[in-house]
């Protein structure tokens, strides 16, 4: 399979972005190629298209499978496995958010909870625990907020994102209303 310049540009860039999202460049390129290709691809097709080793493709597909981002299909009369991206782009975003939460936020929250349970030994540890408690509360709120967002339909998420800073304006109006009401 030969990529067009437009698709090649996207695939290469997505590989670079993948390393910022929690998986390596090659895994990002494999996933981008699968997203950009309408028909399922064999591991050999992927290796040839991306000019990477078959072993690297196999490892990348295993990583994507562990993130639940690819699915395996078969063609009648063909013994090879074929791969395609699993679900929509929204599904992919949710999986990445969920995996990053499990790999980054959950262990941090667990550590913070353990530290908050420790008895402070001196005034500096009391202060440190207060700071840790604030960090914990912030991360808990972010976690609950992102889980709430993940339960929304793509249509509702689009609407919410389009509201953008308008939500802040509504909250400011609410605060002004409550202040006038209390006067």
From TrEMBL:
**Residues of the signal sequence?**
none
| Keywords from the named record | DNA-binding, Transcription, Transcription regulation
Q: Which domain of life is it from?
A: Bacteria
Database matches in Pfam families: MarR_2
Q: Keyword Transcription, does the record have it?
A: yes
Asked whether the UniProt record includes Transcription regulation among its keywords, one would answer yes
Segments forming domain HTH marR-type: 22-80
Citing just one GO molecular function, the answer is: DNA binding
InterPro entries associated with the record: ArsR-like_HTH, HTH-GbsR_regulator, HTH_MarR-typ, MJ1563, WH-like_DNA-bd_sf, WH_DNA-bd_sf
Family assignment from sequence similarity? Belongs to the GbsR family.
Q: What is this protein called?
A: HTH-type transcriptional regulator
Q: Which organism is it from?
A: Brumicola blandensis
